[in-house]
Structure formats: structure tokens, C-alpha cells
Design brief:
The complex is a heterodimer.
Chain A: H1 2-32, H2 39-57, H3 65-83, H4 93-114, E1 130-134, E2 137-140, H5 141-163, H6 165-175, H7 177-182, H8 187-212, H9 220-234, H10 239-259, H11 264-278
Antiparallel strand pairs in A: 1-2
Chain B: E1 9-11, H1 17-34, H2 37-62, H3 71-87, H4 92-114, H5 119-139, E2 149-150, H6 160-187, H7 189-199, H8 201-206, H9 211-237, E3 239-240, H10 242-245, H11 248-261, H12 267-283, H13 289-303, H14 308-317, E4 326-328
Antiparallel strand pairs in B: 1-4, 2-3
Helix pairs in contact in B: 1-6, 2-6, 2-9, 2-11, 2-12, 3-4, 3-5, 3-9, 4-9, 6-7, 6-9, 11-12, 11-14, 12-14
Classes of the chains: A mainly alpha, B mainly alpha.
């Protein structure tokens, strides 16, 4: 019984991490109808940026966020403005293949600079400390912080989308980009801003990911797939749905790992495929087209 | 208003395609008698990549199905060797078509699920599906598990010269077969449907083409083909592991070859293949640099011409080696 509760708890915490990673992808889906195949690689890139900050400036990884978040936001703005904006349109292939190319470039670039060695962002005692919930049941402070941050980021973005002028413009450009242009907005700038926002969240996700787990240059693609699964399970364009999707994926993997360590990830994929079979639009769908 | 006579939309003339293919086939068929082992080995690899590229071109360039998961079928083809040749003792040359048939067979139910995802989502979905296969093979200890397995024993009874020659001939059949097959397909009624599909899905649906049915057939055929080539690749490597057999790197190379050469043309993937092997030959010493160069080149193509190198050549000089475009006459 205790084992089961422990597994479920770990699954939920893992889900928080996946949700945080998936928010950026969900945002780009929602606003631009764009699938960034290099999503996971940019997350890993953010972790390496934090590593550079730690070694050169002697910063704590969480303090490195002050540098990594704005840098990644600028990178996101640039990627959208210089590359992806030229590829938006009815044909999905250019944007898809451009981000696929970026993914390969980032992975091999990181490999050249940092080698294939595994790294970890050392956050001192943060990853070891835990909260005792009762006899034999404990949850680490770090996963709790990650989960809390995922909730806070999503609540913040939902508020931004619902209340601010920028959020309204994002929603409008998502619905009909031509009308938005008629209303006097520059949709290229809007898209780039949305991507900058997505990259800022990816930076946070990347740094927390680097603190929680060891990583190497090849770690991007799995993160893309988990984030994608969280978004699709939750329903496209819905951020709370993405949180739910992340938690379901985390639970499936945690239960799978408990059954057999070799089957954990496969359990997650299986649950994704199952939901695709029975509820292809996800649990809380918001956008109409896929 | 000019009425278009039935049958007026004729495919352009086949020109020298038949002659060219026959010459190529004759050269390839004779190569094991005069070429060295190294040349043959590189040749097998090139022809396998040509076949994979042409199959992906059919999928993405014509069927509109951008897949990042064809490595699933390369893996299934490879593991069919382990299962049927190494474990069950069948001839490896019999295991090849079995692997192809199995790939096509599993591709059908997979397509039911994957077609629920549109466009870009489909691409990531195929990748996840391939990961599932990788994990299944990694957990299947009878087939070697995560650390892989050597199948050298299955080939021990076969004379080395025959081994090389047969691998080369099968690769030649696959490579030339993929090119000529795609050419013949595009000149047929199905080709008309595929070209319509490439240009506009809603319009082809309105013209009475069952988009879903065409896409299913394209996916099943391209996957069966990938299964055959996958088997052949591992018949020459004789060692396979889940990470190598179902690696995203297969997709990376195939996609780059097709995109840089020219997607949606028959000539493009051939050109891309030649370029890939040339670049790899000269840049391999720089480690990961040639992958970075390839990625940058692919992005550049997508940002500028979209038709790739062949698209540029065709629009500049009007050359067409494989005439599949339909012209209105009369």
C-alpha cells in the first residue's frame, strides 16, 4: 500500500517536470500551430548555458536562471523572426524540417563543445532534502518545487492570456492571423514574442531538468517526445490540459518502472497511444484544428 | 471555354528512362565480377540509402506524410533476420522478404492510429511509435535485448564472394527498383492521384480521390520497402542492437538527402544521395561537423528554394531525367 502511494506520488512529481517542459511546446502549438521539433534540444541547450554560468560566474544553478532565461528568450525571438516566420503558412513541411535541422545542429554542436560526457547541475543540498509525509513516505523538496513552479507558470500564462492586451493579441493571432494584421498588429513580431515566451519557460524547465537528472547532448529528443505526449494527452492549446497530460504521463511511467525498470518509458508511450485511440483530441481540447 | 478531352492530360514521354535504367542495371549486375570489396560495400550502402530516400520521398513528397519514424521498419526488417534466420534457422535471404511483409503488415494498424494526428503532429507521432519498437526490441532478450546480438552464424555457410555479390545485387534491385517503381507509379493513375494529393488535399478529395485510402497504401508500401532495406543493411553489418537498428539517425540522413536533393522529384533524392556520400567522404574527419553542415544546408533549402538542388537545376536549365509531369495537349 505504502509502495503504491509512493509510486503514485513519484509519478505525479515526474508529471510536474514533464508539464513544465511541455508548456513551451503547448504555447507554440496554441499560438502558431507550430511543432518545434528542436524543443527538447533547446531545453538541453538551456541546461548547458546554466552549466557555463556556473563554471564561469560561480553561480548557483537557480541563480543562473537570471542569465539563462533572458538569453533563451532572445534566442527564441531570433529563431522565430529569422527562420520560422519565413516558413509559416499552409504548408507545414518547411517549419517542421527547419526545426528538425536545428535539432541536429544543436545536438552535434553541443557534442563538439561539451563532448558526450554526462553532466549535472550541482545545486548543493537542494536535491537531497526531503519532506517527510509519514511513516516511510517522503517527497523530495526539489520535485515539489518543480511541480509548484509548473503550476505557477501555467497559472501565470493563463492570466496573461485571459487578461493582458498581449494575451488577447496572442489569442487573436491564433484564431485568424489575417484579421489581426488588419487590426494593426504585426503578426511576425507577435509570433516572435510568443516564441520568446515559450523559450523563457523552456529555459526554466531546462535548468530544473539539469539539476534533477544527469544529461548529455543526446537528451533532447526524449524530452521532445515526453513534452509532445503531455500536450496531446491533455488536449492541444490548453495549458491546464498540458499539466494533466504531464501528470498522466508521469504516473504511467512511474507505474511502469515499478513493474519492470525496462518498461517504464514504454508504459508512458502506451498510455499516450491508448488515449490517441480512444480520445484523439485529448482530455481538455481547446483548439479546433490539429 | 475549351473543353478538355478525356485523356488529354497525358504524361510526358518516357524519353531515355528505360535505356538509362537498363544501362545502370547492367553495370550494377556486373560489378561483383570486377569491383573490389570496399567498392561493393560502399555501393550497397549507397543503394540502400537511395532506396530509403526514394521511399521517404514517396511518403513525404507525394503522400504528404512527413514521417520521422521510418527507422521503426528498418529495425523490424533487421530483427526479422534475428528471429527467422538466427533463431528459427531459415535462410537469411528468405528472412528478407518476410521482414518486408511484416513491416507492411504492422504498418497498417499503426497507420490507423497515426492518421489521427495531422501534419506536423503525425511526424512526432511516428517518432514515438518508432521509440516503442526500439524499447520492445531492447526488452526482448531472446532477440538479444538492449546490448544487441551478432548474427554472423547465419552467414557462415555461404561463400564470401556470393555473400558480397548477393548483397550487392539485392541492394541494386532495391535502389533501382525504388527509382523505377516510383517513376512507374507516378505515370500511372495512382500517380495522378498522388500528384493531386501533393498539391492540394481538399481539392483531390473533391475530385473523388479517397485521400485516406491513398495515404494508407503509400504508408504501407513505403514501410514494407523500408523493412526490406533494413534487413539488407543488417545482413551486411551482421550485428544489430535496438539503439542502432531503430535510431533516429536513419531518419536524419534520409530526410537531409531528400530535402537537399529536392523533395517531390525523382531526380532529387538521387542527387542528394551522391552529395551525401561525397560530403561524408571528405568531411568525416571533422567529426560532428558534417552533420552540422548538412543540417544547415537543409534549413537553407527550406528557407529559399524548397525544391532543393534538383528544383534549381530544373528551373534553370529545364532538364528532366524522369518525365512524370502531365501536360495539356490538344
Amino acid at each position: 500500500m505504502l509502495n503504491l502511494i509512493d509510486t503514485l506520488l513519484q509519478g505525479v512529481m515526474l508529471g510536474g517536470q514533464y508539464a513544465l517542459m511541455a508548456v513551451g511546446l503547448s504555447l507554440a502549438f496554441g499560438v502558431m500551430r507550430l511543432v518545434n521539433v528542436a524543443h527538447g534540444d533547446f531545453i538541453v541547450l538551456a541546461a548547458y548555458l546554466a552549466l557555463i554560468c556556473m563554471t564561469t560566474l560561480g553561480l548557483h544553478p537557480l541563480a543562473a536562471l537570471i542569465v539563462v532565461v533572458p538569453v533563451m528568450a532572445i534566442v527564441g525571438y531570433g529563431v522565430q523572426r529569422l527562420l520560422l516566420n519565413r516558413a509559416v503558412g499552409r504548408d507545414i513541411m518547411p517549419a517542421l524540417l527547419i526545426t528538425f535541422g536545428l535539432s541536429v545542429i544543436i545536438q552535434n554542436g553541443l557534442l563538439e563543445v561539451f563532448s558526450a560526457d554526462s553532466r549535472r547541475l550541482d545545486a548543493g543540498g537542494l536535491t537531497a532534502a526531503g519532506l517527510r509525509l509519514g511513516d516511510g513516505l517522503a517527497v523530495g523538496w526539489f520535485p515539489l518545487i518543480t511541480f509548484g513552479l509548473a503550476v505557477a507558470v501555467i497559472a501565470g500564462l493563463e492570466a496573461l492570456f485571459a487578461r493582458s492586451a498581449l494575451g488577447r493579441a496572442f489569442r487573436a493571432v491564433s484564431d485568424d492571423q489575417e484579421i489581426v494584421q488588419l487590426m494593426g498588429y504585426d503578426n511576425r513580431h507577435l509570433y516572435a514574442l510568443a516564441m520568446a515566451l515559450a523559450f523563457a519557460v523552456m529555459a526554466v524547465a531546462g535548468v530544473l531538468f539539469g539539476i534533477g537528472t544527469v544529461f548529455d547532448p543526446a537528451f533532447g529528443p526524449p524530452q521532445l517526445l515526453f513534452a509532445f505526449e503531455a500536450v496531446i494527452i491533455g488536449g492541444m492549446g490548453s495549458l491546464w490540459g498540458t499539466l494533466a497530460g504531464g501528470v498522466i504521463l508521469g504516473l504511467a511511467q512511474a507505474i511502469g518502472f515499478r513493474v519492470d525498470p525496462g518498461w517504464g518509458i514504454l508504459f508512458g508511450h502506451a498510455v499516450f497511444l491508448l488515449i490517441l485511440a480512444v480520445q484523439p483530441r485529448g482530455l481538455i481540447p481547446k483548439t479546433r484544428d490539429a | 471555354m475549351t473543353a478538355i478531352r478525356q485523356g488529354a492530360l497525358k504524361a510526358s514521354r518516357p524519353d531515355r528512362v528505360a535505356t538509362l535504367s537498363l544501362i545502370a542495371a547492367a553495370i550494377l549486375a556486373s560489378m561483383p565480377f570486377w569491383a573490389g570489396s570496399d567498392t561493393l560495400r560502399t555501393g550497397v550502402e549507397m543503394l540502400c540509402f537511395l532506396a530509403l530516400a526514394q521511399l521517404w520521398n514517396l511518403l513525404a513528397g507525394y503522400g504528404g506524410l512527413v514521417s520521422f519514424g521510418q527507422q521503426a521498419f528498418i529495425g523490424i526488417g533487421g530483427y526479422a533476420l534475428v528471429l527467422f534466420a538466427y533463431r528459427l534457422g531459415l535462410s537469411p535471404y528468405l528472412a528478407l522478404p518476410i521482414g518486408a511483409a511484416l513491416s507492411a503488415l504492422v504498418a497498417w494498424p499503426m497507420s490507423r492510429l497515426l492518421f489521427r494526428l495531422n501534419g506536423a503532429y503525425f511526424a512526432v507521432g511516428t517518432w514515438i511509435m518508432a521509440e516503442c519498437w526500439r524499447l520492445i526490441f531492447a526488452n526482448w532478450s531472446w532477440l538479444g535485448g538492449g546490448s544487441g546480438i551478432s548474427i554472423t552464424a547465419t552467414m557462415r555457410a555461404i561463400d564470401p564472394w556470393w555473400r558480397e555479390a548477393l548483397a550487392f545485387w539485392i541492394a541494386g534491385l532495391a535502389g533501382i527498383g525504388a527509382v523505377v517503381g516510383l517513376y512507374a507509379l507516378l505515370r500511372s493513375r495512382w500517380g495522378l492521384a498522388l500528384t493531386a494529393l501533393r498539391d492540394s488535399e481538399p481539392a483531390s478529395e473533391a475530385a473523388g480521390i479517397s485521400v485516406r485510402r491513398v495515404k494508407t497504401w503509400v504508408y504501407v508500401a513505403a514501410s514494407g520497402g523500408a523493412g526490406l532495406v533494413g534487413g539488407l543493411i543488417f545482413l551486411t553489418k551482421l550485428r544489430l542492437s535496438p539503439d542502432a537498428a531503430v535510431s533516429i539517425n536513419w531518419s536524419v540522413m534520409i530526410v537531409f538527402i531528400v530535402v537537399i536533393g529536392g523533395i517531390g522529384t525523382i531526380e532529387g533524392p538521387i542527387l542528394g544521395c551522391i552529395l551525401y556520400f561525397l560530403l561524408r567522404e571528405y568531411l568525416a574527419d571533422f567529426g560532428a561537423a558534417y552533420m552540422i553542415a548538412f543540417g544547415a544546408l537543409a534549413i537553407l533549402v527550406m528557407l529559399t528554394t524548397r525544391g532543393g538542388l534538383w528544383g534549381e537545376i530544373r528551373s534553370r536549365w529545364g532538364i528532366e531525367l524522369f518525365p512524370v509531369r502531365r501536360r495539356l495537349d490538344g
